[in-house]
Amino acid sequence: MVQLPEPCNEKSLAFKAGYQTIAELSKDRIKASGNQVSNECTDPLKHIDIGFRVLKIDSSNMAEVYYKPDAISQTDLFAQVDNVKEDRTEEDLLFQVMLDWGVDLSLPIKRETIDGKAVFYVADNALVACFDKSAGITEAFVKTLVNDSGREGPMRLVFRDAGFASDSAKINVEQVLKQLSPHTDVKSI
């Protein structure tokens, strides 16, 4: 469903019930429909997924870095260390990557913690993402990610560029992945 945040008519029952926009009303209608379907299901062994996602269009997650060489000073370079806008969450980055790679936004997403880092698995191994920015992405972490997860190597793997322990760690991670999971498409943002 696609719904613009169109304001409710102030004379409508929806507005009087506290709904400011048609999108808010639509979300509650979907929840109520899902609950009704769930309540009508009499088979105790059958699990019905009544969840849904609400996505909003926003600007890019990436910081704008359109500077001419003579318009930037050496002190400004420290502001360019992380290329992601400060107010963006890991989920924001995940959905941008999914859109960039053409991955269906309705696929199931699991969040796991590996070595203290949040790792997202989209449709098991269609896309694996870690946006940790604590400079803790190392070869050992990637080996754990690929080998110890009990899964086949991911089709696509994405990291946050600022999450690598060092430039050499990033290069080494790429080489480790070529050996352990050569079919994996790797990207860092």
TrEMBL record:
It comes from the Bacteria. This is Uncharacterized protein. It comes from Shewanella sairae.
